[in-house]
């Protein structure tokens, strides 16, 4: 049986108070699926360090990214 994979989700940072070194305003970030975090109004994103961390969901806005851009972002965050 195949496991279901979620399509990659991307967000734009609209607020970075308290996380200036980790998050850049207006930058697109890839979201790592984390149901427990989302239940607590947090998102797990790959930040400037290249690692995934939890941030307030209110700091981001979801965006649709073209396939070519999603591939480029994914490759850059590996």
What would you say this structure looks like, in words?
- Helix content is 19%, strand content 31%.
- With 78 residues, the chain is of the alpha+beta class.
- The protein has one domain (9-76): SH3 type barrels (Roll), CATH 2.30.30.
- A five-stranded antiparallel beta sheet has the order 4-3-2-1-5.
- The longest helix has 10 residues, at 67-76.
- The protein starts with 8 loop residues before the first strand and ends with a helix.
- 14% of the residues are buried.
- The model has no long low-confidence stretch (mean pLDDT 88).
Can you describe this structure in just a few lines?
By secondary structure, the protein is an alpha+beta fold. 19% of the residues lie in helices and 31% in strands.
